[in-house]
Amino acid sequence: MRARTSRIGNVATLALALTLGGATAIPASAEPLPPPSTTGGVSDGAKGAPDKEKMSSHSQELLIEAEAAGKSRVTVMTATERGKTAEVVKHLTSLGATIGYVHDKLGYVRASLPTGKAEQVSTIPQVKYVDLDEIVSEPKPDPAPGTGTGSSPWTGPSPQTPAENPYLPTADTGAVAFTKKNPTYDGRGITIGVLDSGIDLEHPALATTTTGERKISNWITATDPLLESDPTWRVMLNRVSGETATFRGANWKLPHRDDAQYSIDIFRESSSARSEFKGDIDRNGKTADSWGVLYDYQTHDIWVDTDGDHDFTNNTPMRPYAEKNQVGHFGKDNPSTRVQENVPFVVEYRTNVDLTPIGHAGTTADVINIGTVSSAHGTHVAGIAAANMPGWKMQGAAPGAKVVSAEACVYAGGCTSVALTEGMIELVANQRVDIVNMSIGGLPALNDGNNTRSALYNRIIDEYGVQIFISAGNSGAGTNTIGDPSVATDAVSVAAGASKDTWLANYGAKAKEEYWAQNYSSRGPREDGGFKPNIMAPGSAISAVPMFMDPEDIPQVSYKLPVGLSMFNGTSMASPQATGAAALLLSAARQNDLPVTPAQLRASLESTTRFIPGLEPTAQGNGLIRIDRAWPVLRKAPEASNKYAISAPVCTPLAHLLATPNKGEGIYNRCDATKGGHKAGQNRTYNVTITRTSWPPRGHITHPHLDRQRRNLLSTTPWNSPRKTLHHSRWTATPKRLGTHADILDITPRDNAIHGTRMMADIITSNALDTAPYTASMAGNMDRVRARSIFVTVPEKTQALQVNLAGIAHGSAVRFLAIDPLGMPVESEEIQNRCYTSIGDAKVCPPTSRAYTNPCPGVWEIVRRRQPTHTRHIQLLPPYRSAQGVTVDPAEKTIPTASVGSPTEINWNIKNDFGSTPVRGTGGPLGSAHEERPSISQGEKHTYKVAVPAGTSRLEISTGKPADINSDLDIVVRDASGTEVGRAATSSAEETVTLTNPTAGTYTVEIDGYTIPGGKMAYDYQDVYYSSTLGKLTINNGPLRTLEHGATLPITGEITPNTQPDEGRHMFGELTIMNSENAAIGSAKVSIEKITTK
């Protein structure tokens, strides 16, 4: 396909401006950065680590949320010293905990305990990490909004589709070429664990392997049966006996068994209302059906009254799937339709479960599970990894492999941390799978892999010799958006790529590039500079989905998909591509009696990739995997033990929170140039310490993908180093342009077939917005498959970061998204796809102009991308730049005396310090403020009452100016009924809660001294409400007036109080200078010292 047929992206301008005064009502603000800490994190096995650092910062936030919500108990997951779980259990029990799961070999204990005791878990000496359970959002396929041409040489998959095809592009990884050359190395003899949302047990593509064996060898549920809102678990407390029993107003007929000890319960389909079932599990168009379940305490047999006649005697007793491969069904299938109208399920049970966490102290009971898929995601993932479609040439990566399904997700949406941890243990330690895929994860701000789950994953890989593959995440294309738990050091983090053939076949859109990283694919590095992602694999696929789901058409293509197939895209699809490809290597090794360690598997895959030119390593890691290249390396059983330990400088807003403060496994510099950051054109040296832990003493440093014109990252010469001695290496970087500059630095003995230790280096040079006109811009062409970023440094005390997008032709679809200095996307996932020009929703997300209020200082990334399938021609329009910022004189003014109902005139002058801009002044309702500076101790709570009058438009509560910058204060606001209505709980003492249009009444404010290193300190407290009942500030100006650079403009106004302030409060008004985008570019404050009545 000729490049000239591709649609080239918009020629557009992205302009950014800072506002150093005033405030804007446009949403999408980011939290301020936490202050530097005097202590770091804790590494596995570290002694004497600070107790609080054992709990990740994310879990500390979860604990604050639980306390604020009044939760009586929380679930903690701990990584302990191996073999020391008994001591941990003893300590936890003394805290009132109920133990839910223990694995001594790996060093893992999970428990439920009173919320107020959770912090004390960190004080247990044998505990190394502690985290709280939560729901992790299930990845959603990245949508492709808009419409394509619908014209393509690809007519959709069919039995005649060749093995090498763009729909399910296993050929991209070399899997097709490998199995064509080696037909028996198709995954046979290998079992893949799929930790996900469950797999459809009756999909034809997942029925058998290429050798005729059952494809799905087991199906289990990994969620906690009591505490994770999973209604598929039923607690069997209702004992019944005899031939009949009455339960829930109905008479039930029971199987005749002498001395049987039965228990009965109900499973309701309405519990699936928030899932893809939409409450209709039996697919009959109704959502009120329910089914009785019966359990025999002696034999553990389970009956499900699937026909709904209240008679268990005509239902076959069921056993867990692994025992007899029994599958039940809800609903009745109509063979004449394409869709399967019944839903398969399996059963399992757990015995003697302690019911204390749900209010039955001292009581145990057995629980049973009705296992159905919770979404289509897991089936799609399994199909990519291992589908064997009867009569089709198009197959999954490893059609000969078996699969074990571990359900980790719930109907209500999302997957639980407990299930993602214990499900992994179950798959590897008990189910004995050979390799695991997990396409689920999240994005915490501190994504350094220093938490309970990452530690457990590393231990699992090391202890059991089973490699784990994890999706990198769909939070890209911003730097440092790599997801957790793919940040676990020894897990293989998989980024998503795509070819132009797949783009045309699956999206109906043409692209210029041959291969690229998908824009949604999360980028590295890890917060500590760690090498993530590790590899890239295809991230779009037409694969299996449950047969009982209606087929979904792809609007951008002309063909229709049959029942049981659907097109998803995301790193969720890339990970099983890599997992299935790796299963082929393991299959080949097993058939050649070649033992393979996870380190050998990783090294063989990562050393033989196809590195995509022009694509940063932070997007593709080592590159696109090619197992046809990897096998010749792996079959030689390469030495791949841990070679070198690296300690490199890290400069980010969160670097002080790393396990070793400001040090990590790679060079990562995202700092403000005035605070340790790197300037474009600057020649700078980074000191890296390298410790040889094994292998020959001679090391050789290379940087194979270096582009010196762009990066100029230089290495030192080879060296000789005895084992366990340090080598101090100096790395010089001279980036010549603004932006991100990443490279891979390789330390490998000469003539070795695989990579040695690899270090990622990423240096960001940013546009400094600290001098007039406080603007930066980016313009140029952009292909639909590429994203472009501009980095800007936002200085402290900035009130608004204004971003404008211009030069976009009518009908073109482009968006920009902001990534804050912590690597966190500011726009929520729910609104991101509503931010496109021409096809977005301007009311939800203005596509061409947004202001980010109170932005945290540091290096921001603004990512611009085209809508992936839009085909309209792009026209060049004149670029637009925005440069705003005015000085208001006087900035603060005090009126000695004002009378109720009488206006007092005020005069200001505003001066434009920057480029030409339209301006106007705005006033509004007066505010009433209460301020004080109290002292607070560690663990102390201060309580304030705020009487908010009717007509209040805004209530703000804030803390600030702490005497100790390492302190942490939290704010909780409750209304008159005691309901929490606001909370601020970052890791600093600078907190603000804002309530818009609050209901009149008395509000209670709680200030929590969460962390006070010195024991006690002073801080500023303020509560302010704005209400028209207090009075107003009126500005006397007309429409927008253009103010040139250096020009001044007089503005007059009147302040009129309507009442006197309550005791201990004072009243004021605010003047805000707005630009044409309604962004605040200046402000002034008018206070009234005394208000009299007439």
Automatic annotation (TrEMBL):
UniProt key word NAD: no
Annotated signal peptide: 1-30
Superkingdom, taxonomy of origin: Bacteria
Pfam families given in the database record: Peptidase_S8 (PF00082), PPC (PF04151)
Transmembrane segments: none
BP GO terms, sorted: proteolysis
Composition bias type Basic and acidic residues, residue spans: 929-939
Catalytic residues (positions): 196, 377, 572
Gene3D superfamilies the UniProt entry points to: 2.60.120.380, Peptidase S8/S53 domain
Alphabetical UniProt keywords: Hydrolase, Protease, Serine protease, Signal
Location of the Peptidase C-terminal archaeal/bacterial domain: 942-1008
Record region (Disordered): 27-59, 136-170, 911-939
Peptidase S8/S53 domain span: 187-611
GO molecular function term, any single one: serine-type endopeptidase activity
Ranges annotated as biased composition (Low complexity): 150-162
Record-stated family: Belongs to the peptidase S8 family.
Name the UniProt record assigns to this protein: Putative serine protease
Organism for this UniProt entry: Dermatophilus congolensis
